[in-house]
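Example record for the data management plan.
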Amino acid sequence: MGLTMSDRPDNQVQESAENIFAQRTAKVRELQDANLLPFGERFDNAEKIAAVRASYRAECEAGPPVRVAGRLMGRRIMGNAVFADLKDGSGRIQLFISKKEVGAEVFAVFKKLYDIGDLVGVDGGLFVTQTGEFSVKVRQLTLLSKSLHPLPEKFHGLTNVEQRYRQRYLDLIMNDDSRELFLKRFRIIREIRRFLEEKGFLEVETPMLQPLAGGASATPFKTYYEALNAEMYLRIAPELYLKRLLVGGFEKVYELNRNFRNEGMSRRHNPEFTMMEIYQAYGDCRTMMELAEELITAIALNVFGTLKIEHSGGVVIDLTRPWRRAAYADLVREKGGEDWFDVSREERLRRARELGLAVEDSSPDFEITNELYEKLIEKTLIQPTFVTRLPAPLVPLAKACRDDNSVVDVFELEINGQEIAPGYSELNDPIEQRRRFMEQYERTKQEGDQVGDKVDRDFLTAIEHGMPPAGGMGIGIDRLVMTLTGAESIRDVVLFPQLRIQK
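Corresponding structural encoding:
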C-alpha cells in the first residue's frame, strides 16, 4: 500500500504555517505533561531501511525482527490501525501500527500527538502485504524528535528553485534526486582520494588564511588578523605553498579543499568553491594530461559505470580516451581568421568588435585574443579537449615552450563548454619567476601599492633553493561533479551555495 503526503488526516496543506507551528508546540507541551520526551534520546542498533528490505526472505512467514529509525512521511488512519510511511537516508518502508500490537495508550498518543515530519524509532517484525508492499508490523514506537513545521506538500515540493538552495535540508528530505546527486558527489571525492593514494600522492593541508593572495589572478576576500595587526586574505589558490613542499622533498602532493574568490556568482561560478591542486616532481604538462584522463575516466567507470554522460538537450559527453588536444592559437584562427596573429592591432580590435566582443582600445593584445577565446570558443568545446600552448602573460607560473617563449607549456581541460582543469609544466627557474612576478606587478599595480604587498618574496626564496621540474594541475571539483552528473548549475552540486542575503 503506497502512501502519499496527501493522505494526511489533518489537512495540513491548507493550514497556515503559523497555525501548524502553534498546534505542534502545544503537542510538545502535552507530551511533556504526560512525561514523554518530544525530543528523544539515542536509539541504538537501528538498521538501514535499504538493508532491511534487501535481507527479507519470503519464507520467513513469522517476519524477522527489525529495528529502524527515520522520518514519518505519510500516514493513513483506519480505525484501530494506521499505515505510515517511514524514510531514512537509504530508502522508505511502510509501517503497520495497530492498537492491538502497541497498546491503547501508545496508539492514542501516536494518533493525536505524532505528525508528518516527526522522527521516530520502530521495533517490529518485517512482512510483505498482499499487494507486495514491504512493511513493518510495529511492536514498539519511540518518538525521537518532534517536527514543529510541516513538510512541503509532496506533489509540488519545493517548486521555488532558490528555496531549494536556501533550505537545502528540506530539499534533501523531499527530493530523492537531489539526495542522490550529493551522494554521487561524495563518492566522486572518495574515488579521487583512493585513486591518488594508489598512485603514491600525499594529501596535505596548507593555509587558507594567507598574508598574500597568490597562485592565481583573482580578486581576494580580505580580512584583518588582530593578533598580528595585519591584513590577511582568504586564499584564492594553494599553489605557492604546495610548490614549497616540492622544494622540501615531498614529490607527489595534492590538496582538496576550499578556495575563495571575491567575484561574481553565476550558473558556473560560486565565490567559495572546492578545488584540488596536485603536483608531481619530475613530471610536466603531459604528465598531468595523462593523469587527468586516467583519473576522470576511473571516476566515471567506478562511480557511474559508464564513460558516456548525458546532459540536457540530448548532449552526451564521451570520456573515451584519448582526448582531443588543440593549440590555443589554432582555435583562435578558426574563429577570428587564419591571419588573426598577423594583422595589425587595430584590425584585431575591429574584428573583435564585429564579433560582438567588448574590448577597450587600451586592452593589451593578449587580452583581446583571450576575450575571443573565452566568449566565443570555450563554450563550443563540448567533448573533452586539452587546449594547449596558451599566451605567456595569462599563466605567469608556467614554463615557456622551448620552441616559442611567447606561449607556455600548459593546458586547459575543457568539457561541456567550461574549464575543468588547468595543468602546467611548472616554472622552476627562480630568476625568470621573479622577472614575471615583477612584470605582472608593474602591469597591475595601483597607487600606493608596494612590491612586498603583491609579490610573494618568501616563495621566490624557496624556489631559489632549487625546485624540481614538475607537472601541476588544478581540478574544479564542483564543475567536475556537474560534468559527471549532468547537473546544469553549480548551485545544484554545492550543498549550501552563496545567495543574496535576505532582509
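Summary line stored alongside the record: The CA atoms of residues 331 and 377 lie 7 Å apart.
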